[in-house]
Amino acid sequence: MSTLPQCPKCNSAYTYEDGLMFVCPECAHEWPKVIAEGSNDLNIVRDANGNELKSGDTVVVIKDLKVKGSTLVVKVGTKVKNIRLVEGDHDIDCKIDGIGAMQLKSEFVKKA
């Protein structure tokens, strides 16, 4: 019998672990184990205005950001949906339309 939680989005029982995340193969929803297990995270991530950020939030970029190793720029006002919080200096993991997967610092975004 599996002790993995059901998917909070579609209630599928076929979830699996992938590193620090749970994944639902039916609806492709991902959520962190920490939230699923109910443990408290002492590292609270805050945006430029001091608002607490959580995985799944939508944020807006408040400064033009150059993409390292490229000529691309993430412009002010770019909306980033469904962020994922990670450990480290760049504490937001996300996908930006037209650029792809990247990591951002929380000090350069505000909660939408």
UniProtKB/TrEMBL annotation:
Protein YjdM C-terminal domain location? 45-112
The segment(s) forming the Protein YjdM N-terminal domain are 3-32
In terms of SUPFAM superfamilies, this protein maps to: Prokaryotic SH3-related domain, Zinc beta-ribbon
Kindly give the InterPro entries that the UniProt entry links to this protein: YjdM (IPR004624), YjdM_C (IPR013988), YjdM_N (IPR013987)
Any one Pfam family here would be: Zn_Ribbon_YjdM
Q: Which family does it belong to?
A: Belongs to the YjdM family.
- Please identify the protein, giving its name as recorded: Protein YjdM
User: What is the scientific name of the source organism?
Assistant: Sulfurirhabdus autotrophica
